[in-house]
C-alpha cells in the first residue's frame, strides 16, 4: 500500500532574493521587508521510512522555533558557536529554541559576519571548489544570506573548508599570517568547530541544506588532524540522509517528490530579475536530482580510500545520471547553449558510477587469497574505456581546456575526471597481470597511465595549482602512480641503468612534492605521503615491523581526545629501547 503524503503547510522558504547570473551583484539582491518575528513559528519537516518500518512512508516532523527577547545584541563577531541553541527531544514534536542572533540589531551581518565578508567568501569557495558541489549555486546562497534564509550550518561548513584558501586578514578575529607554517590547516578551525556543534541539532531535521553541509564538512574535516575519520563519518551521514530524503529515487517510483521538499518562490520583485515560479521550480527539481551524485561520488572515493565496498549499491539507485540539460537550470542558466561547466559534472558522475563497480570488486570480502577473474577485469576495462572515450570534445584534456575549467571554478573536478580514469586503468591493469603470468599489455597500460598522471599534474602545476591543492581526492591517484612506478623499478632492477633509475626516482619525487602541496591544506593526506615513503625504502606496509615503520604510520595521527576512559583503556605502555 502506498504511503500517504501529507501536504506542506508551514515549511515555506523562498527564492525571492535570488538574482539570475546576468544580474547578481550583491547590491541588487533584494532584502525582504523586515517584520517582527513571531514568538514561535512552526516548520514542517519530513523523514522517509521504508516498507519494514513501523510506520512506512513519510513521517511529519513538527519543529517549533521560538525567539527570545530582542534585548540581546547578539554574539560578538568572532563567536559563531551554537551555544545559544538548545534541543529538546520529545515524542511529539521536536522543539528547537533559538536566539535572534542579533539580526535585527545588525542588519548588515549574517550571524556575526558582515555580508561583504560572506559574499567574498562564497565567491572564493565557488572559484575554488565549485565543481565538487554542483547542487550549490553562488547566486542562490548569496540570496539566502541576504534574506537570512541561508543555513548557518551550511555556511559554517563552507567557511571551514575555504578559509584556508582565503587571505589571512579576511576574518577579523584571526591573528595568523598566511606566511606562518601550518596557517592553512589552522584557518577555518573556529568555523569547523561551529559546524560540528550546529550539526547535532540538525540530525533530526533531514533537509537538502543539511546533506550539502555534510558533504562540505567531510572535506573540511579531512583537512584537520586525524580528519580521515571525519571524512568517512560525515560522508556516511550525507549518503544516508540523502536516502532518507529519497534523493536516490526516480520520479517514476517516488510519489510527488517535490511535495515535502519544495521552496515556494514568490513573485519577482519590480526592477530585479529573479527566477519566475516556473524557473524556480525547475531549478529546485534539478538541484534535487543533482544533489545525490556528489554524495555518491564522495562515498565511492571514501570507499576506495578505506578499502571497502561503496555504502550504497548501484542496484539501489533509481535516479538517472545527470545531464548537461539538468545542469543548466541548476546554474540558473535558462538561455543559450551548453557550456563546459554544464558538462563536467555529468561526465564525472557517470565515470564514478562505473568506478564504483571496480571499487566493489576490489574490496569484496572473499579472503586475502581472492583474485579477480580476468573476465571481470576485462569487462570493467571496456566500460571504463568506453566512458572516457565518449567524453565531449570540450572535455579532452589540454592546456587550453584546463585553463577554461579553472576560469569556471571547475579545475579540481576537471583534473579528477582525467586522473581517475588513469588511476583505474592502472588499478585494473595491475590486477589483470597479477592474476596470470605477467601480461605485457596490461603492464604497459599501467605504465602509460602513470605517465599520463605525471603529465597532467605537470600541466596543472604550470597553469593553476589550485586544481590539485584543493582536491584531496587526487592523493589516491598520486599514490597509485607512485606505487606502480616503484613496483616496475623493483621488477626491472637487474636490467635498468643508472639513468633510468634516476629518472624514475625524479618522477616519484615530483609526485611526492604534489602530495606535500596538497597536505598544506588537507592534513590527512600526509598518511599517503608516509605510505609512499615506506614503499620507496623497499618495505611495504605489511613487511616491516620495525620501530621506524611504526613511527611513520603514527607521526601524523595527532588528536585532541577528552575521553579519559578511552585513554586509560587503550594507552600503549611505553617501552624502553
TrEMBL record:
Domain Xylanolytic transcriptional activator regulatory: 231-327
Biased composition annotated in UniProt, kind: Basic and acidic residues: 545-556
GO molecular function: DNA binding; zinc ion binding
InterPro entries: XnlR_reg_dom
Protein name, UniProt field: Xylanolytic transcriptional activator regulatory domain-containing protein
Species: Fusarium oxysporum (strain Fo5176) (Fusarium vascular wilt)
Keywords tagged on the record: Nucleus
GO BP terms in the entry: DNA-templated transcription
Disordered: annotated segments: 534-556
Amino acid at each position: 500500500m502506498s504511503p500517504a503524503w501529507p501536504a506542506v503547510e508551514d515549511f515555506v522558504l523562498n527564492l525571492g532574493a535570488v538574482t539570475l547570473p546576468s544580474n547578481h551583484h550583491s547590491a541588487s539582491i533584494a532584502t525582504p521587508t523586515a517584520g517582527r518575528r513571531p514568538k514561535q513559528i512552526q516548520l514542517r519537516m519530513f523523514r522517509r521510512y521504508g516498507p519494514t518500518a513501523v510506520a512506512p512512508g513519510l513521517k511529519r516532523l513538527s519543529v517549533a522555533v521560538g525567539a527570545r527577547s530582542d534585548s540581546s545584541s547578539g554574539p560578538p563577531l568572532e563567536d559563531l558557536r551554537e551555544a545559544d541553541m538548545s534541543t529538546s527531544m520529545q515524542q511529539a514534536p521536536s522543539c528547537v529554541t533559538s536566539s535572534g542572533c542579533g539580526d535585527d540589531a545588525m542588519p548588515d551581518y549574517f550571524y556575526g559576519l558582515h555580508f561583504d565578508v560572506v559574499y567574498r567568501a562564497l565567491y572564493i569557495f565557488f572559484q575554488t571548489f565549485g565543481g565538487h558541489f554542483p547542487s550549490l549555486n553562488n547566486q542562490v546562497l548569496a540570496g539566502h544570506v541576504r534574506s537570512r534564509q541561508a543555513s548557518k550550518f551550511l555556511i559554517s561548513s563552507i567557511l571551514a573548508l575555504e578559509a584556508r584558501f582565503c587571505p589571512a586578514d579576511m576574518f577579523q578575529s584571526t591573528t595568523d599570517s598566511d606566511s606562518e607554517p601550518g596557517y592553512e590547516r589552522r584557518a577555518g578551525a573556529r568555523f569547523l568547530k561551529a559546524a560540528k556543534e550546529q550539526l547535532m541539532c540538525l540530525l533530526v531535521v533531514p533537509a537538502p541544506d543539511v546533506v550539502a553541509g555534510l558533504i562540505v564538512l567531510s572535506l573540511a574535516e579531512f583537512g584537520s588532524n586525524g580528519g580521515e575519520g571525519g571524512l568517512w563519518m560525515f560522508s556516511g551521514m550525507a549518503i544516508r540522509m540523502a536516502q532518507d530524503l529519497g534523493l536516490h529515487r526516480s520520479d517514476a517510483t517516488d510519489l510527488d517528490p517535490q511535495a515535502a521538499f519544495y521552496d515556494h518562490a514568490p513573485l519577482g520583485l519590480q526592477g530585479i530579475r529573479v527566477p519566475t515560479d516556473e524557473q524556480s521550480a525547475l531549478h529546485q527539481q534539478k538541484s534535487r536530482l543533482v544533489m545525490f551524485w556528489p554524495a555518491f561520488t564522495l562515498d565511492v572515493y571514501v570507499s576506495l580510500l578505506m578499502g571497502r565496498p561503496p555504502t550504497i549499491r548501484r542496484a539501489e539507485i533509481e535516479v538517472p545520471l545527470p545531464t548537461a540539460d539538468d545542469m543548466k537550470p541548476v546554474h540558473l542558466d535558462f538561455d543559450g547553449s551548453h557550456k563546459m561547466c554544464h558538462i563536467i559534472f555529468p561526465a564525472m558522475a557517470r565515470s564514478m558510477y562505473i568506478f564504483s563497480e571496480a571499487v566493489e570488486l576490489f574490496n569484496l570480502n572473499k579472503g586475502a587469497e581472492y583474485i579477480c577473474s580476468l573476465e571481470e577485469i576485462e569487462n570493467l576495462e571496456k566500460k571504463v574505456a568506453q566512458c572516457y572515450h565518449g567524453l565531449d570534445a570540450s572535455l579532452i584534456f589540454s592546456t587550453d581546456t584546463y585553463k577554461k575549467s579553472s576560469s569556471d571554478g571547475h579545475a579540481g573536478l576537471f583534473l579528477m575526471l582525467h586522473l581517475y580514469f588513469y588511476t583505474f586503468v592502472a588499478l585494473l591493469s595491475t590486477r589483470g597481470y597479477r592474476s596470470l603470468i605477467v601480461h605485457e599489455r596490461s603492464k604497459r597500460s599501467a605504465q602509460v597511465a602513470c605517465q599520463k598522471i605525471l603529465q597532467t599534474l605537470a600541466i596543472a602545476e604550470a597553469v593553476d595549482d589550485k586544481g590539485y591543492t584543493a582536491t584531496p581526492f587526487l592523493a589516491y591517484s598520486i599514490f597509485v602512480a607512485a606505487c606502480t612506478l616503484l613496483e616496475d623499478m623493483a621488477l626491472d632492477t637487474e636490467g635498468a641503468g643508472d639513468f633510468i633509475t634516476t629518472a624514475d626516482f625524479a618522477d616519484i619525487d615530483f609526485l611526492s612534492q604534489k602530495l606535500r602541496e596538497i597536505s598544506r591544506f588537507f592534513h590527512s593526506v600526509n598518511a599517503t605521503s608516509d605510505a609512499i615513503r615506506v614503499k620507496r625504502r623497499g618495505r611495504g606496509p605489511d613487511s616491516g615491523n620495525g620501530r621506524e615503520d611504526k613511527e611513520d604510520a603514527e607521526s601524523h595521527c595527532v588528536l585532541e581526545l577528552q575521553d579519559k576512559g578511552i585513554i586509560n583503556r587503550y594507552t600503549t605502555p611505553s617501552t624502553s629501547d
